[in-house]
Amino acid sequence: MSRSLKKGPYIDDNLLNKVTAMNSSGEKRVIKTWARRSTVSPEMVGHTLAVHNGKQFIPVYVSENMVGHKVGEFALTRTYRGHTSRAGKKK
Predict the structure, then answer these.
(1) Residue 34 C-alpha from the chain's centroid
(2) How far is 26 from 15, CA to CA, in rounded Å?
């Protein structure tokens, strides 16, 4: 279910404050965040976010195509190791 248009997109306040401060000062550094449910805003384009996936921080470089998506979509939480082979099961 999407968020109401009246409310607007959800962006974590701390994350938005860090991004706007970096935009005003002109510096570029990695921002650590646990806010996977935050929506990527146009102010975040060009920054690198270290998004927590439950175990480690995954660096995500924000591009224009990511605007409107959630931050957590770009840091996968599950590692797929492929299907097991039948030969491996018999041993």
Answers:
(1) 9
(2) 16
Residue 55: pLDDT band by 50, 70, 90 thresholds? very high
Q: Which residues contact 56 (CB under 8 A, 6 or more apart)?
A: none
Helix then strand then coil, % of the chain, to nearest 5: 30, 15, 55
Q: What is the mean pLDDT of residues 23-32?
A: 95
Q: Model pTM?
A: 0.82
Chain position carrying tokens 């921002």? 31
Name the residue among 19, 51, 20, 18 with its Cα closest to residue 34: 51
The beta strand positions in the chain, using DSSP E, are: 31-33, 48-52, 57-61
Q: Which of 22, 42, 40 is nearest to 31 (CA)?
A: 22
Task: Quote the CA–CA distance of 47 and 31 in Å, as a whole number.
Answer: 8
Mean pLDDT of 58-66: 96
